[in-house]
Amino acid sequence: MDEPVSFLFMKLSGIFFVLVGFFGSVVQAKERPNILYFYVDDLGWGSIGPNAQAERRAKGLATVQTPNLDKLAAEGINFRRGYGCMVCSPARSSQQTGFHQGHTFADRNDPDNAKKAIREDDITIGDALLKAGYVTGYWGKWGYGGSKEQESPTIDNIQTLPTSHGYQHVVAELHHVRAHTFFQPTLWTAPAPEGSKGDLYLEANTMKPWLGNGDYPDEPAKQNHPDYPETAYCDDVYCFAALDFVREGGQRYQKDGIPFFGLLAVQIPHAPFDEIKFLPEWDAAYADDAHFSKLKNQSREWAAMVTRIDAHFGNILAALEDPNNDGDNSDSVADNTLVIFMSDNGGPGGANNSEFDANGGLTGTKGSINEGGIRVPTIMRWPAMITETSELKRGTSTDMAIDVTDLLPTFCELAGTEIPLGLDGVSLAPLLTGKGERRPREFLIHEAGKGHSIIRRDHKLIRRPNGDLEVYDLAEDPAETTNLAEKFPILTETLDKMLTEERVDEPKGFANTYHHWEGKNGAKLSKAGNWSDYAYANEGITYIEDDGAPQLSWTAHLRNSGKGSNTAVADKDTDFLALEVGAADGVSQALKIGEGVTVTGRNEVRVTDGGTIDIEGGKVASVRWVDVKKGGRLLGAGSVEGILYNDGTVAVVPSAVAGMLMVAGDYREEGGSRLHLEIAGKGINVTGEAELAGILSVETVPRAKVGELYEVVSADSVTGRFANAGDRVQAGDGTELRVGYEAGRVTLTVVSPLQLSLAE
Question: Tell me: the pLDDT tens digits for 146-197?
């Protein structure tokens, strides 16, 4: 097998870190992909071949060598409009929780983030995938939960640790300031040895030679190179731990079908740059590069760092091809492993940016709300799905905008587990698998100390700290050189209003809060006393407290966990960030929305198994969607504002105040859904597209005369068909009807028993 690296140290790819008690008992699901996520720190958008370096190389200019990442892009998809965040701490918070900086707790590099950034209630990538039966690992810069002392750091908040959020196998740094050296003396590691206290323990940051059988010597041995420092370069330790995990995980996946998720969040190429010079042959990869010796010190050090981590990535990718490292690739798990590469934010200023064009000509650098601060290199490879014939073709680049918040919902959907309620991110799984349809994402939100931005399709609005507004057309002007705000005042006003509504103006420490229904049967939805209070506290300090009535920052679960059925009554307009209505154990939970009342879940309204939303002339609204899941019901007559997804039951039940269901948006069905009409002709009116796939049923048919025609669905356009056999419906009163399809409507026609038998 060809070696994927080009210098001496990396040739010893057999050296890796011990991970004790590697795999537990989890659900077997070999059809689900393994997921391997490479996450680098401060790598500018233009630092990889397909974005800027290949063009520079063709012109004979100085370039950074990333052969493995360039190969990864050639075998997958390069997302030219992938977005991270502006600085380190918010990036990791948004990555793990799926919320943008207007809603997540860490919206800037607050020194206290290490103590409080990710809360017990936040569902992270690790939480979701562990629950789904994945074996999980995290190596590198976590940034939360521990103190910054180089010697004898402490754990300051158990709630925010990686081991408290689903990560089983960990070698990490818990404080972002402590990660500002590559030679910290100890690293936090899990699982902890028997007899130790807590899930994480400190281990000396040294490299240990592998004996080839999984065992290590009792006494420390010499390093693999006589000049290698006694305290290891931490990214080497992270990468060899990840390599071990992938080898073990690949073998277990082949044997037992247990999928794995690994997130390698290295510190490279964050400053300090010059520490790489302590490593033997640190610049050997550039020995034949005529440009290298002429570059400034920072540029040479930065380039060596990037190429070193690229070599580590190559070793780990090779382990997917040959998990047991015996030279035989018949045990490869690469085909069904989704590999993601991404940076947390744009690259910093300095010599590397000017001499390598590391940000690819984009305006701004790390910390900026301009593209150079938030647009990041992003690659995805999944050979089983991303091919020459898939929608996203292998070896190509796309200008589709995606965001770091999209990854949590993507991984959940691929793993077959529930996406956490009300996230800002949107799953990319349909895009990657070619199955189903990706839900629309209207805009991306980013927040920085030096402004805020909203990106909607090709237009981007920036609001500066002094209130100045700028608008750019990113398709025509990715470098953001021409401000269009005065030219398009209506667009500017619209985007500015949307940006404000996403809570980017809130003070630091603001975040969504989590609440659960405690009201008795018939209790009012809007009353504070019917909901659980929320407090986020640690070591006697309360960071967030909310004991009031529902508001737009609430992620709210209206779930019945009692013994009898429960109904909540929407007595007046009530707003949430997200609202779920559901129940368990055979009981039910209903929400009644009366005439003139609107219940809003800005990001999402979700109706799950055992839940019912009963619209009796009222409205349920969302900026995005109302999602009726399997076992959930939306019934009555009134209004839905937003896309209505139906994988359960939508039943149109007319009342004295409303005769139909009006949907201001699209209506989309899954195959197992049902659209039920209590009365034929009292159906659903859709202002957008109606996509049909489920069963149509009818209770009664007035004036059931042969040939009588009833309109049951009207829309701007109708796609798909109901799943009724032979396009026939037998109503509850015995009437036989035929389903008819036209460009913008679906009808039912009464058919006599004689005509039905002759037709068949």
Answer: 999 999 999 999 999 999 999 999 999 999 889 999 999 999 999 987 766 6
Q: Which domain holds residue 480?
A: 450-501
* Region of residue 652 (phi > 0: left; psi between -120 and 50: alpha; otherwise: beta): beta
Give the phi and the psi of residue 593 in degrees, each rounded to 5: -120, 110
SS3 (DSSP) at 202 = strand
Is the Cα torsion angle 670, 676, 680, 681 positive or negative in sign? negative
CA distances from 494 to 490, 503, 687 (A): 6, 15, 21
CA-nearest of 185, 235, 247, 241 to 208 is: 241
131 and 267 part of one domain: yes
Q: Is the pLDDT of residue 588 over 80?
A: yes
| 44, 189: one domain | yes
Question: Quick check: is 676 in a domain?
Answer: no
In a domain, 729, yes or no: no
Q: Is residue 152 part of a domain?
A: yes
* SS3 per residue for 12-41: CCCCCCCCCCCCCCCCCCCCCCEEEEEEEC
> How many domains are contained in the chain?
3
Query: 397 with 459, same domain?
Result: no
Among 646, 665, 684, where does a domain finish?
A: 665
SS3 48: coil
DSSP 624-690: EEEEE-TT-EEEEEEEEEEEEEESSEEEE---SS-SSEEEES-EEE-TT-EEEEEETT--EEESSEE
What value does the mean pLDDT take over residues 480-504? 97
The string of pLDDT tens digits covering residues 437-464 is: 899 999 999 998 879 999 999 999 999 9
Report whether the peptide linkage leading into residue 272 is cis, meaning its omega lies within 30 degrees of zero. yes
pLDDT tens track for 641-694: 999 999 999 999 999 899 999 999 999 999 999 999 999 999 999 999 999 999
666, 691 Cβ separation under 8 angstroms: yes
Is the C-alpha dihedral spanning 40, 45, 51, 56 positive or negative? negative
Is residue 26 assigned to a domain?
A: yes
Q: Two tokens at 100?
A: 């943008």
Give the CATH number of the domain where residue 454 resides.
3.30.1120.10
Instruction: Count the residues in the chain.
Output: 760
Mean pLDDT along residues 515-544? 94
* CATH classification at residue 321: 3.40.720.10
Residue 148 burial (C-beta neighbours within 10 Å; 0-12, 13-18, 19+): middle
Quick one: 454 and 568 in the same domain?
A: no
pTM of the model: 0.93
229 with 277, same domain? yes
Tens-digit pLDDT profile for residues 370-393: 999 999 999 999 999 999 888 889
pLDDT band at 116 (very low <50, low <70, confident <90, very high): confident
Do residues 110 and 220 share a domain? yes
The residue among 665, 694, 727 that closes a domain is 665
The DSSP code for 63 is -
The set of residues, in sequence order, having a beta carbon less than 8 Å from that of 656 and lying 6+ positions away, is none
Specify whether the CB–CB gap between 170 and 296 falls below 8 A.
Answer: no
Q: Are 138 and 162 in contact (CB under 8 A)?
A: yes
CA atoms of 549 and 576, how far apart (whole Å): 10
- If phi > 0 it is left, if psi is from -120 to 50 it is alpha, else beta; for residue 154 that is beta
Q: Is the pLDDT of residue 759 over 90?
A: no
Q: Are residues 94 and 185 in the same domain?
A: yes
Q: How far is it, in rounded angstroms, from Cα 123 to Cα 104?
A: 12
Closest CA to 119 of 548, 546, 550: 546
194 and 221 both lie in a single domain = yes
Rounded to an integer, the average pLDDT of 281-290 is: 96
